[in-house]
Design brief:
Helix content of chain A: over 70%
CATH class of the largest domain in chain B: Alpha Beta
Radius of gyration of chain A: 20 Å
Largest sheet of chain B: 6 strands, mixed
Number of helices of chain A: 9
CATH topology of the largest domain in chain B: Rossmann fold
CATH class of chain A: Mainly Alpha
Largest interface: A-B, 22 and 25 residues
Strand content of chain B: 25-35%
Order of helices and strands of chain A: HHHHHHHHH
Strand order of the largest sheet of chain B: 5-6-7-3-8-9
Structural class of chain A: mainly alpha
Order of helices and strands of chain B: EEEHEEHHHEHEHEEH
Number of domains of chain A: 1
Distance between the termini of chain A: 55 Å
Radius of gyration of chain B: 18 Å
Number of domains of chain B: 2
Oligomer: heterodimer
Strand content of chain A: under 5%
């Protein structure tokens, strides 16, 4: 039992690498996409990207990146790289949408108040709009990280040795499914609790009496 | 000081301002009255350049300050930070910043909210937010202060406070244009009242020249 737990636990680092690699790419690309959305030439392109990513299964996007990239571009990606890239690209579309809703939820008066005080655009975004947007979207972003963590189980389809894949290996070897799968569930649940805890801490730290 | 010349503005097919002409003298307190949708707020927003006129012009040779009906304080900044952010922008650790801080603290003390200096806007009452918004506008040293419905949502006692506050600001030589549907408030504070209806000026009067200015203005509402 202990050796099974430790074998499954060895997939923890791989799962975390996939999750945080994906989140990092998703955040950077998502921010970039929402900034470029304000540029007229890019709107159609970005809307198309978001629509395609949201309209196709993640497992399919990952398969395209892992299986077809070698023949298309002559590049063989490792499972970890293919996973991080596909989770990151997938997440970017959702992050861009979360940011869009966060910006649109701010009252127009905040922009106007800054304008009447003569605050330049750069400072308006940096000091007035973004701090409020970040607080507004924090719960949705925590959800996105949790969803991404759970989506990393799809890496087992291309053979990645994450928590899920390891539990399946044990189950197949020992013809016993309940305990290995419950062990994997416990690992994922603990990770989710940890992310929720950190999220709540950040929210509390950034929190202020809103209702202005 | 402030000249509005043939100002017209439409939203879709609705004409909100129709050929409005107003001259405001220095240090004058002008009240803009009128029913809802008469164009008071739009006129203020056009003066502040938050809206663009379809035709006509606004000439103002002084800096303008704007007080929003819903205050629009920055909710993630304390009261003091709300006051200091714009005037201190780009001036790190200079004497100017220190002077601004002294001025902000003195202003908050005068407005009776010195104890709220480190609180966030969300924990303030409507009247306190009103004062912070007023102080924030004044920190920019405006020559013309535009106030959009400064007493909306305030109780009678707080409204009286706002009257005396705005009067004391008027006495310092700041020109003010105040839009309000509250005729009683406007007659108490304004040197002159203009009544707008469907985007047109229907009355332009000096409150002190009338025995009962509220009744006089109410006739135009009918």
């Amino acid at each position: 039992m202990i050796s099974n737990c430790s074998y499954i636990g060895k997939g923890l680092a791989f799962t975390l690498e996939l999750t945080f690699g994906g989140v990092a790419i998703g955040l950077i690309l998502g921010c970039l996409l929402s900034v470029l959305r304000h540029c007229r030439i890019c709107i159609a392109l970005i809307n198309g990207w978001v629509s395609v990513i949201r309209g196709t299964p993640l497992i399919l996007q990952m398969s395209i990146i892992y299986f077809s990239f070698p023949s298309l571009m002559g590049v063989k990606l490792s499972m970890l790289s293919a996973g991080i890239i596909s989770f990151g690209l997938n997440s970017s579309a959702y992050v861009a949408e979360i940011l869009r809703s966060g910006i649109e939820s701010l009252p127009k008066g905040q922009f106007e108040a800054a304008q009447t005080l003569g605050i330049p655009n750069f400072f308006l975004w940096k000091d007035i709009i973004l701090p409020q947007v970040i607080l507004n979207i924090l719960p949705a972003m925590i959800n996105e990280v949790i969803a991404l963590l759970k989506d990393t189980t799809l890496i087992s389809v291309i053979g990645g040795m994450d928590i899920m894949r390891r539990s399946q290996i044990i189950a197949a070897e020992q013809f016993e499914y309940f305990m290995p799968l419950c062990t994997a569930a416990a690992y994922y649940y603990c990770l989710v609790l940890l992310i929720e805890f950190v999220g709540r801490k950040i929210e509390r730290r950034m929190g202020y009496a809103k209702n202005s | 000081m402030l000249k509005i010349h043939n100002a017209s503005k439409s939203f879709g097919s609705t004409r909100v301002l129709d050929d409005v002409n107003i001259n405001v003298a220095k240090s004058e307190i002008l009240g803009l009255a009128g029913p809802s949708g008469s164009g008071k707020s739009t006129l203020l927003r056009c003066i502040q350049k938050l809206e663009h006129l379809d035709s006509g012009s606004v000439e103002c040779n002084e800096k303008t300050g704007f007080m929003f009906q819903d205050f629009q304080l920055f909710p993630h900044m304390t009261v003091l930070a709300n006051l200091l952010y714009a005037p201190n922008l780009g001036k790190k650790n200079t004497n100017c910043c220190k002077n601004n801080e002294k001025r902000a603290k003195a202003m908050l003390k005068n407005l009776g909210i010195a104890s709220k200096i480190h609180e966030y806007p969300g924990s303030l009452s409507g009247g306190q937010k009103q004062r912070v918004a007023l102080a924030r506008s004044l920190m920019m040293n405006p020559g013309v202060l535009l106030c959009d419905e400064p007493t909306s949502g305030l109780d009678v006692a707080t409204t009286m406070d706002v009257v005396s506050l705005l009067k004391s600001i008027g006495e310092t030589g700041v020109t003010m244009v105040i839009a309000s549907h509250d005729l009683d408030f406007l007659t108490k504070i304004s040197d002159r009242i203009i009544l707008l209806r469907e985007g047109k000026i229907v009355a332009d009067m000096k409150a002190k020249n009338h025995k009962n200015p509220v009744d006089y203005l109410k006739k135009y509402y009918a």
